[in-house]
Amino acid sequence: MPLMMSEEGFENDENDYQTLPRARVNRRRRGLGWFLMGGWKVLCGSCCDCLSHICWRRKELKARTVWLGCPEKCEEKHPKNAIKNQKYNFFTFVPGVLYQQFKFFLNLYFLVVACSQFVPSLKIGYLYTYWAPLAFVMAVTMMREAVDEVRRFRRDKEMNSQLYSKLTMRGKIQVKSSDIQVGDLIIVEKVNSFLLAALEWFALEVPPSACFIRTDQLDGETDWKLKVAVCCTQRLPAVGDLFSIRAFVYAQRPQLDIHSFEGNFTREDSDPQIHESLSIENSLWASTVVASGTVIGVVIYTGKETRSVLNTSHAKNKVGLLDLELNRLTKALFLAQVVLSVVMIALQGFLGPWFRNLFRFVVLFSYIIPIRLNVSIGLGKFQKQKMLISTTRLVAHNEMVFKRLHLGTVSYGTDTMDEIQSHIIQSYALVSQTSGTASGTTPVRKTQTSAPKVRKSVSSRIHEAVKAIALCHNVTPVYESHANGNGERETESAEADQDYIDDNRTYQASSPDEVALVQWTESVGLTLVNRDLQTLQLKTPSGQILSFSILQIFPFTSESKRMGIIVREESTGDITFYMKGADVAMASIVQYNDWLEEECGNMAREGLRTLVVAKKSLSEEQYQDFENRYTQAKLSIHDRSLKVAAVVESLERELELLCLTGVEDQLQADVRPTLELLRNAGIKIWMLTGDKLETATCIAKSSHLVSRNQDIHVFRPVSNRGEAHLELNAFRRKHDCALVISGDSLEVCLKYYEHEFVELACQCPAVVCCRCSPTQKAQIVTLLQQHTDNRTCAIGDGGNDVSMIQAADCGIGIEGKEGKQASLAADFSITQFKHIGRLLMVHGRNSYKRSAALGQFVMHRGMIISTMQAVFSSIFYFASVPLYQGFLMVGYATIYTMFPVFSLVLDQDVKPEMALLYPELYKDLTKGRSLSFKTFLIWVLISVYQGGILMYGALVLFESEFVHVVAISFTALILTELLMVALTIRTWHWLMVVAEFFSLGCYLASLAFLNEYFGLGRVSFGAFLDLSFITTWPFLWKVSAITLVSCLPLYIIKYLKRKFSPPSYSKLSS
Questions:
Q1: What phi and psi values does residue 20 have, to the nearest 5 degrees?
Q2: Whole-structure pTM over 0.70, yes or no?
Q3: Binding residue per annotation — 690?
Q4: Helices (runs of H) and strands (runs of E) counted in the chain
Q5: Residue 638 vs residues 435, 554, 625: alpha-carbon distances, Å
Q6: Is 1059 annotated as ligand-binding?
Q7: Does the annotation flag 777 for ligand binding?
Q8: Distance from C-alpha of 862 to C-alpha of 853, rounded to nearest angstrom
Q9: Which end of the chain is more exposed for a tag (fewer CB within 10 A), N or C?
């Protein structure tokens, strides 16, 4: 506590010193002269900053004292325990959506144009001509956002309504997750599928005083974590006694670090007071799952103060690449529009109020920029060049299967496991025949006198290997609870009745590898049936129980890459030291052999995880000597870890090599072809995971993220600038190799050599970042966005991936057994990893190409009518008079051409199967040929040509019937647009044909019933269309001639281009 208080005081003093010079400067500057010379701006800015700070300031996170079961004693108000993935609330929805829309140049431009129509001198047409499309666009956008918000609200409500059992003085009650408060006592059982991201507690009472939890949703690590209950509360006779004691927890302030915790537990009603320190082993963070048993905990953090939420970034509004490209083209169109208006005014001679006429021309040519462009392309679209896959769960089931046992001279695979089983059964059967109940007698000794020498050797080696695998681990068997006659749940006590039922037994461990090994020993006859902190029991094929005392355990660490255990067999008193680990760590520990390195390489090439198993027999004197030295080392104050490691290493000498095991991590369906598909599509893949380095590397190899003939550079741990510089230089000399780096080393490199590291890493074919925190994942995404021009796509399936998904240009969430947090926060949600291939290669590619074609066609539709308006104004002495009345303009952009234009979203150049077979088609999108300034200029030339032909043709051919120029030109315009849609389509769909004929029918009907709109308006002084005129033969053939001249050259050019320079997809489709 004093250190915590000192740190807070030091931080406050430092902040005070930083503000002192600024205060003195402000006092010196104050005065009338200072105020008149610009001081008022400073004051206004200070007032705005102050108001902003008051309105938006974040609550300071502080340490807290939490009384058990007494939420009302909390000194401060804590946030509500609720999940919220919504972008807006009831008050911010409308202004928030409007801001996101009008911050783009396109919508802001049309807002200004629409507002200008309220000025009489600038009014061109009816108000609905400009306000109706704008209101339609905003309505469609708000409806789309509202639907998304409602969906998020319903999902959040579903999560916040999950029921939990709360322990009170009157018993258990059911409460919603959103109603849980700091200080509540919550009962969590294995049946609870998921602990919400708004809840954290400390283990207080667990029947075996320890439990395993899954943290894959928090930190990405797939192994289970062992959590220990508070000793003081664990000794209470009954659960209800938690309310009879006076105790509290002092917890540190909420922070980002998910791997550490500091706190104290104090019981005041005992004499003397009981104080117990709390660490990460006593905590169950949010977004974790209790793997077995029942936990009673006190809530410490809720809502926004939980680790998982603190490591989650706020949702942002993402802008696609297509939107940015179209926004740039829109600005180019606006520049062309202004230039055209200036040219018209210049040709007019700048006569009269030319500023007003200039603005009127800008409004007249406003159709160059189509307001419905953003609605037309408001479909799913994304183009990615760099993909970040989070956690190994996405590609691996995390289900291990034992595949290989190698004894040096003989190897056993999945098809010969029955031989091992027969050896085990025979060994323990001989023991039962010769010694009866002498369960402790080693079967090997019994078989040495009654079997041939070769058979003895193989049988004894198999027996010792299986026995070592069954003993050297950290696995705990758990017997599932079941309902008794009264409907209450009870736990089957293995210790009470020694009835070990195989059907009810499951295994808990901190690594799935160990579970696979123990399950394999059970399949061959030697079963782990019971384990606690001091003892371990095995059951033989004949039902005999072998008991062992656990003397010492040396857990696995990333540094040592091995684990060990010392056990004493109770029946014989033999003490044995067993050890297993990676081949690189065990090669120098075991006795000399000539097969270990070669066989490890063979198994690695098969994609198996290898473990070397060895043993060493100890006498009683040897063990006592070791125990004394080990105890003294653990009591050392200085260099404790080094002294402990030195004592353990003295034991790790000349171990007898027993066997080599191979375990396969089963991948999800079609993971390898999916990753290969993405690589062939030009997408670089980075894997960001919280798993250990060895696990991440093995998954990268087995999934073929790193090809077998590709080198892997493991970035050594660095802690300072010098080490980072040396390691980066060593990495720079490597060529075409995958990079594997830990989160700690990555942080050091980014601190000193950010640009250099990103440049080198982007040259790698694959990058694996292990031991990454959720915040680091988001930082890597942001880093790639800042230092490269590539678009990023983040894929995750857990709560620890939410920050990364929200930071990427496109977030994909996989909804599965790990929960819905990633899918709730993502832009796209899928159920399996293999669906990513179709999502990108088929839907993503089609979406981009269709949206690009649709966007450019909508621009063409606006530019062609603006060209006709320019020709019309130039002929009539550059008058700023509209060619078509408001209703015709609205009809042109909607019912006359909307359906055929929108039918372009059904177009496709190749079939989905072909797009999946040739991912190089997706790679072509990165060249930007579908939407670029080159294609944009082509469409501009087409629009100018067709607009000029339509307008000049109407004026030339119908000079004697000049009053019908509107009907003539508009009819040719509609036919040209329908033919251009047909020219753009590559694969016809029946809905496209329906849309074409429906639009043509609507236009013909409007000619008959809305003929008053087809006059020349103000120029013709109310002239109307003569129905008998449009049915004459001259009208029909002259309109057909104008349409043919505007479209036929384009059809000829398209035919010649496809014949002499066909696109890549046409070769495949043919």
A1: -65, -50
A2: no
A3: yes
A4: 41, 34
A5: 52, 21, 22
A6: no
A7: yes
A8: 14
A9: C
Say if residue 800 carries a ligand binding annotation. Answer: yes
Across the beta sheet with 274-278, what order do the strands follow? 64-67, 247-251, 263-267, 274-278
The answer to whether 609 is a known ligand-binding residue is: yes
Rg (Cα) of the chain, in Å, rounded? Answer: 38
Rounded CA-CA distance 880/352 in Å is 13
Q: DSSP letter at 18? A: H
Residue 816 annotated as binding site = no
More confident residue, 419 or 702: 419
If pLDDT is split at 50, 70 and 90, which confidence band does 776 have? Answer: confident
For residue 835, give Cα distances in angstroms to 384, 665, 745, 792. Answer: 16, 21, 33, 18
What is the CB neighbour count within 10 angstroms for residue 996? 18
Give every CB contact of residue 12 below 8 A, 6+ residues apart in sequence: none
- 1053: CB partners within 8 A, 6+ apart: none
Strands 294-302 and 289-290: unpaired
Distances (CA, A) of 419 to 392, 638, 922: 34, 52, 51
- Find out whether 507 and 476 touch, Cβ atoms under 8 Å: yes
Are the C-beta atoms of residues 823 and 829 closer than 8 Å to each other? Answer: yes
Compare 30 and 884 and report the one with higher pLDDT.
884
Q: Do the annotations mark residue 257 as ligand-binding?
A: no
Q: Is 689 annotated as a binding residue?
A: yes
Structure tokens of 660? 């080599």
In Å, what is the CA distance from 374 to each residue of 106, 196, 378, 389, 984?
8, 38, 6, 31, 20
- Helix 127-160, helix 93-102: angle, nearest 10: 130
Quick one: which H or E segment has residue 543? none
Whose tokens are 């033969």? That residue is: 1033
Side-chain half-sphere exposure of 784, counting CA atoms within 13 A = 26
Rounded Cα gap, residues 582 and 585, in angstroms? 5
Mean confidence (pLDDT) of the chain: 78
Closest residue by Cα to residue 467 from 615, 250, 253: 615
Model confidence pLDDT, tens digit, residues 126-177: 787 778 778 887 888 889 889 988 988 888 888 888 888 888 888 888 998 8
CA distance 976 to 792: 40
Bridge-based pairing of strands 386-390 and 792-796 is parallel
Residue with tokens 């999800």: 668
499 marked as binding residue = no
Q: For position 76, what pLDDT does the model report?
A: 79
Torsion of CA 459, 464, 467, 473, to 10 degrees: -140
Q: Is 148 annotated as contributing to ligand binding?
A: no
Q: Is 1029 annotated as a binding residue?
A: no
Secondary structure element (H or E) that encloses residue 440, with its range: none
